[in-house]
Predict the structure.
Amino acid sequence: MTPRDHSNSGQPQEEVISFYAKHEKIHPREISGRFSRLRKISVFALLGLFYLVPWLSWEGRQAVLFDLPARKFYIWGLVLWPQDFIFLTWLLILLGLSLFFFTALAGRLWCGYACPQTVWTEVFLWIERWIEGDRNKRIRLQKSPWSRGKLIKVSSKQFVWIVFSFWTGVSFVGFFVPIGTLVESIAHAEVNGWPLFWTLFYGGATYANAGFMREQVCQYMCPYARFQSAMFDRDTLIITYDQKRGEPRGARARSSDRSQQSLGDCVDCTVCVQVCPTGIDIRKGLQYECIACAACVDACDSVMDKVGYPRGLIRYTTQHAVDGHPTKVLRGRTYVYATLLTVIFIVGVVGLIHRKTADLDVIRDRNALYRETVHDEIENVYLLRVLNKQMTPRAFTLTLEGLSGAHIDGGTPRWHVLGGEIYTTAVRVEVPSDTIHGGHTLRFVLTDASTGQRLLAEKARFIAPP
């Protein structure tokens, strides 16, 4: 605040100077072209998977379901358990390296074509255009005073947005709760608790981010926009305005000779700015707000076609190419990323194929260190949990290794465990008292009774008198 003299009495008054520019809503202009078609294909493919997959069935159950209460994660014929969380780490590493690889190769492909913010914002824009009209009509509607027609259009748009956002929340929760049960409970107004909370939370986030915040998420909230340049080099494919060809820019008649007017190819129509979903001017150079959607490329190409100039004034290219130097799109870092991705992918797939089909937890009874039986033996009690990771019933047998004279009370046990179930039982291990003193290690060996295959061995501690 700065004191200024604005009164007749000469007394200084305070004038408030704001350093914050009010946000102006961006109304992207619709454009057609090859990149626009690719973006639409990406939107339909990704949202098609998101909304359709929860409704697919596999062997009488939901094909993809992350059942958190039961700690089972169904992915078609694959069932993962908390013990398989190592594969989640593998997936995250794979996704991270993929981001590095595609960014080094072709810039922000993720942001322009696959980011959830981009995908859902595109759908919300389609709804807005369908109800309120093209860019000019939307701008006029926003600036016009409230009337019956404006109220109907705005209310209709908001209603469709809310319904779409709510169904998005339902589809999201449908990956964690059987979606048929969820929809039925919603229809009967019986949904509550966490399913209701996450439905409203995810739906509300979609409504706020794609309906109102839009480009502000990319500009102010997304961390990727801030560090993306660290993965760029002068051989990275980016959206670039060819200044040597385009400048000096200026309007001209279509029949005029631009060389006589000392003008470049840019006719300064600003269509590239009008179609940009983040509202930037790509002619000022690469900016962190650019999400590489290539809408400006389609817009500029269409203008070049109209005025009879060659395409490519704005295009996907590298900084080296613009400067007239040779370009190496496939170079050292891309080969390193590709090799790491291939190796990690193969290792993960092999691990999935050869992962354990059963699991065994052994918990020693801590209420008593040991017990001396009437048969002059030392007995330890263990609680065993046998997990059948396959979805078909199996029979298991249990044997002991590593401790001479140790045997299971009642002989070798044989258990039938249903598919995807946990069988819990207590086992008494006995050792002749004259052959053991102090603490020793033994192994419980779980075997598939039908094939005789040794599945796994779990160590445990056996305690005897000193």
In short: The mean pLDDT is 89. The radius of gyration is 33 Å.
